[in-house]
Amino acid sequence: MFTGIIQGQATVDKITVKPGLNTIHFTFPQGALNNVQTGASIAINGTCLTVVDFDANTAAFDVMTESLRLTNLNELAPGTKVNFERAAKFGDEIGGHLLSGHIHTTATVVEIIDSKEEFTVVFSIDETWTQYIMPKGFISINGASLTVGETVSENQFRVHLIPETLRITNFKALTPGSRVNIEIDHQTQTIVNTVKRLKL
Asked: Domain Lumazine-binding spans what residues (predicted)?
């Protein structure tokens, strides 16, 4: 389980392509892997991955073909920076909202509005998922718990990012056409699906 509070950025070191999976090696900031163990869960761009090997500042993860297909992890290359969050422990403060680390889909950056007043990103997403994206609702983008600003059209929405979010995440590197991982808020999804069933 994760909270959507990004703890920093890791950098892709190397990618080893194997039958049915890629093993991706990342370099983490000093101290970020303290007390980590093989088998531990770390969210990379919001995708829950399992540590298969590590040392002081690096960790490796096996990413299966299906995860590569559903996420933007298939676009990683050496030098790419990703958001990371280590799994929450019982008693941790939930500063964002509860996340499973299971990505539902991806969205594409349509426009970036960078002004003195705000940094706004407009995303397009398959209309299948827009029923779960509501103004002021929660959404996870590349693992970060964010509040939806407003919907723009039937398949677009926007978020407004504060300077601290830009500092700690890889959002500053987004450009039009960038793909991001999306995890829909599970409570919203459950409520919408329940209401739809009751109307049948």
From this structure: 1-97, 98-195
162/180 Cα distance (integer angstroms): 18
pTM for this predicted structure: 0.92
Sign, Cα dihedral of 56, 163, 175, 4: positive
Listed residue (70, 68, 62, 92) closest to 1, CA to CA = 92
Per DSSP, what are the bridge partners of residue 121? 112, 159
DSSP annotation string for 70-134: HSGGGG--TT-EEEEEEPP-TT---SS--B-S---EEEEEEEEEE-SS-EEEEEE--HHHHTT--
Domains, the chain, ranges and CATH? Answer: 8-86 (2.40.30.20), 105-198 (2.40.30.20)
- 80: pLDDT strictly greater than 80: yes
